[in-house]
Amino acid sequence: MDERGPLCVGIDPHASLLASWGLDDDVAGLERFSRTVVEALADTVAVFKPQAAFFERFGSRGVAVLERTAADARAAGALVVMDAKRGDIGSTMAAYAETFLHPDSPLFSDALTVSPYLGYGSLAPAVELARTSGAGLFVLALTSNPEGAEVQRAVREDGRTIGATMLGHLAAENAGESPMGSFGAVVGATLGDLSSFDLDINGPLLAPGIGAQGATAADLPRVFGAAVRNVVPNVSRGVLRHGPDSGALRGAAERFAEEIRTAVSG
Ligand SMILES: O=c1ccn([C@@H]2O[C@H](COP(=O)(O)O)[C@@H](O)[C@H]2O)c(=O)[nH]1
Q1: Packing angle between helix 27-41 and helix 246-265, nearest 10 degrees?
Q2: Which DSSP state fits 193?
């Protein structure tokens, strides 16, 4: 992030994007789409976030494309956050962790998105393996969609919201780490003023919602306050809609990166 800026470009091969790129909605189209994004941007953006759902819908051959996409992006020097949003009881969570966080796995990624809504403690196997592998997690804390509030803003008996509780768990995981720990939170850029939450978790804040969901880079300081320095803003469709031309993809990513730089430094 220091070298390249914090922009995270999502690799979300929606059927509608494949169509607008002139590609078929099949495995060959998926492969061409993903390869084009990685080749166009892997030397400039800090982070890619492949959305596993769009690969899994093609079955095992789609997952094979996902493996190659993650490996190619990492080989080109970018970080990969696998957006698979896994979460289950601890014993099953251990298998998900092996899949995405074990360095020998074909789907190894620098970080994985996980859902804590079976209880934060159920994520323990993933926390443990991430620590061993030098990888990270992004835990869904305050998601960008309006429906998320029903769960994440629910208030516990002790008066804390569920979202704030998750942020508290992450701050504890990252305590004492410098420059920051590897246990991040997903916090939507769409959420407006979040000053009632303590976002100072000493870890990265993955912020989806810029572009297609209506948030802008200029919103970041208002949403995140002083924690804006740890934000990894994600843009997926806002960049991808400019393809398939590589120059246009690069131009779109550069514009978002510049807007983010201006917003964060201003
Ligand atoms: O709270 C969340 C968590 C994850 N996402 C994911 O991020 C991208 C956003 O795509 P855009 O095209 O930029 O809207 C997508 O993969 C979501 O599944 C999120 O939007 N909000």
Answers
A1: 50
A2: -
- The ligand 1 atom at the shortest distance from the C-alpha of residue 144 is 1
Rg (CA), the chain: 18
Using omega within 30 degrees of 0 as the cis cutoff, is the peptide bond preceding 179 cis? yes
Q: What structural domains does the chain harbor?
A: 8-265 (3.20.20.70)
ipTM higher than the 0.95 cut: yes
How far apart are the C-alpha atoms of 76 and 42, rounded to whole Å?
6
Q: What are phi and psi of 104, to 5 degrees?
A: -85, -5
Q: Which atom of ligand 1 is nearest to the CA of 148?
A: 1
Neighbours of 76 (CB within 10 A): 15
Which residue's CA lies nearest to atom 3 of ligand 1?
143
The residues, ordered by sequence, that sit 6+ positions from 199 with a Cβ below 8 Å of its Cβ are 167, 185, 187, 205, 224, 225, 227, 230
**pLDDT, position 254:** 97
82 contacts 52 by C-beta, under 8 angstroms:
yes
pTM metric for this prediction? 0.98
**Lookup result for tokens 């919103």:** 219
Q: Which of helix, strand or coil describes residue 185? A: strand
Quick one: which H or E segment has residue 238? helix 237-240
Confidence of residue 2 (pLDDT cuts 50, 70, 90): confident
Pocket of ligand 1 (CB under 6 A): 10, 12, 51, 83, 143-145, 186, 188, 208-209, 211-213, 234-238
What is the distance between the alpha carbons of residues 205 and 229, in angstroms, rounded to a whole number?
9
**Is residue 49 annotated as part of the catalytic site, yes or no?**
no
Q: Whole-angstrom Cα distance, residue 66 to residue 54?
A: 9
Q: Distance between CA atoms of 112 and 181, rounded to whole angstroms? A: 14
